[in-house]
Amino acid sequence: MKTRKVPGRPLPDVTLEASPHPVVVLDEAGRVRSSNTAATLVFPALETGAPLADGVPAWLAEAHARGEGTAHGAVGDRTFRASRSAPAPGGAAWWFTDTTEQSAAEEALRRERGRTAFLVEASNQLLSSLNARRCMDTTAQLAAGHLADAAVVLGPSGRRRIHVTRAVRGGPATRELLAVDPAEVPGLADALAGFPAVPSRWIDASTVPGWLVPDGFGPVGSLMITSLPGNGAPPGALVLLRREGAGPFSEGEEGFARVFAARAGAAICAAQLYAEQSAVADLLTEDLLPPVLERIDGIELAGGYRPSRDDHRIGGDFYDLYPAGVPGGETMVVLGDVCGKGLEAAVLTGRIRTTLQALRLVEPDHERLLELLNGALLSSRHTRYATLVLASVRRTGEVLRLRLTSGGHPAPLIVRADGGVETADTSGSLIGALPEVQATTYSTELRPGETCLLFSDGITEARGGPFGRDMFGEERLSEALSHCAGMPAEAVVEHVRMLASDWLGTGRHDDMALLAITAPRRPRPGPAGGQGHGRSTA
Amino acid sequence: MRPDATVVTHTAADTHAVIAIAGEVDCDAAPAVETAVAEAHRSGVRRLVLDLARTTFADSSFLHIVLTARQHHELLVAGPLHPAVQRLFDVTGTTPHLRITDGLDEALGG
């Protein structure tokens, strides 16, 4: 700093007194020449004529001795910034500014920035895993590293035992399943029930049971307990431990620990829900996977299902098979498309499949069957609906007698022996959304080598082609099918599936389902098969 | 980005709301339509007009929105409908359950 020299005269005391800032004026020898009242209030030991070092803290005396222009330090419980000027040749004056509030604000800002950075880092670490156990480990380690000397994550609690995850600062997390009573720790049972935490100063650290404290931690100086909110799932609890002599948790630290616990709780709960959901999804998918189709009672069946690439999503298209109970009886297949994806759609698919399985035993008529199914689905709370095609097939000699009914679904295509492709003349309304449904059934026969193809709109609406955005469309599907006369069912499905896949390229697509019903070219001679057994259907 | 992105406009009067949709409504575009329908629902109008004259394609995600809206509003569909949209209503058997008009004027006056 540049100091301006004022010619020869000592500063009049009246000027010093007028200054709100403490001022100390020194002579050439570094002795106090004068000071104002503000200075004597801060430095009561100052004496005129005595060396500066006798009346001020060491940091100021040393800065003066070194000839520095500014200095900063504490006086009692306050902090000051000192600036030096030279009012007379050889002399010096120190001016003081109280920086206590400013320093406190700067410190608070630094602390706040540190906390924000920690929360960001904590969120990143917590959300990087959808494994609940790893989330709890991370929570314990982060809390031990930044909020306390050790941290314990408790929960979720079972009937008698509770998961206890402990971490000491800088160490790994360890987990145990303990048969302990959380009520042994004051406030812990409340935290596990999701109630607000008890202020830590009310908890006697000496009462902490040994099972809570990590091995080799030593005596606990202070602890605080906070709930890990479960957001619907059972909550857990976070216990922070400090060693003896580390000081209690301040109100600010407790508040911050609760903010951290809220984030950690959300992450753990998300991971738990995810685990639960994927377990349910796995279970449902297992049950909802399309059945393996093969030749049944002289009827060739083949199916192809390509789910949408949205991973881990189920629902959408489905097909199912209900074999005739007796040889020569009527076998029913269904192919459908449930509106929506995910669990809700999967549940609806399951209901349709099981309802049809039961209803077909008492109601052979398709239109009536769809009415009953509609009634069963309408009673549910959701406005989800499905479109589907029913096909009932009975073999009469080498001919398949076929009844086809669309419930709001694209009508099946039939490829004849000569390569001609027909659209089954059936239409109807979708199921599960309208109070009444109507449908018309189309009856036809398949001669050897002829195929009826049931498909979902995922095939016809598949976007791709040379420009990447045209739909595959029913015309291309018909064209593809016209080359399938005389092919076995399996080959028809493969052929169409391959063309649709080529059309798609790498583009996104909806579920795609195909089901082929084919009259075999050379029916296997079977003991119960043969002419005359089939009853002609209307 | 598809060249013909779906445009949803929403004009509301005291008694009715009009949602006009241009382009294709597939599962990517359906949420925008759903939002507009939800807004109309919140505004409390009795009559909801879906102006589909410029809608070139719609799939089952759109149909779900239509069927849900039908439960809360006096729903009118203003055409003339593009063949792909007409086909969606025909194949699913919903045409007889919808009031489809030849134009927006008719929908607003009717």
Automatic annotation (TrEMBL), chain A:
UniProt keywords (A-Z) are: Hydrolase
Span list, region Disordered: 519-538
Q: Which domain of life is it from?
A: Bacteria
Where in the numbering of this chain does the PPM-type phosphatase domain appear?
296-519
InterPro entries according to UniProt: Bact_Sigma-Reg, GAF-like_dom_sf, PPM-type-like_dom_sf, PPM-type_phosphatase-like_dom
Compositional bias ranges of the Gly residues kind? 527-538
| Stored Gene3D superfamilies | 3.30.450.40, PPM-type phosphatase domain
Q: Which PANTHER family match?
A: STAGE II SPORULATION PROTEIN E, STAGE II SPORULATION PROTEIN E-RELATED
Provide the protein name.
Serine/threonine-protein phosphatase
UniProtKB/TrEMBL annotation, chain B:
Domain named STAS: which ranges?
18-110
Matches recorded under InterPro entries: MlaB-like_STAS, STAS_dom, STAS_dom_sf
Q: Record's PANTHER family?
A: ANTI-SIGMA FACTOR ANTAGONIST TM_1081-RELATED, ANTI-SIGMA FACTOR ANTAGONIST TM_1081-RELATED-RELATED
Query: Can you name this protein?
Result: STAS domain-containing protein
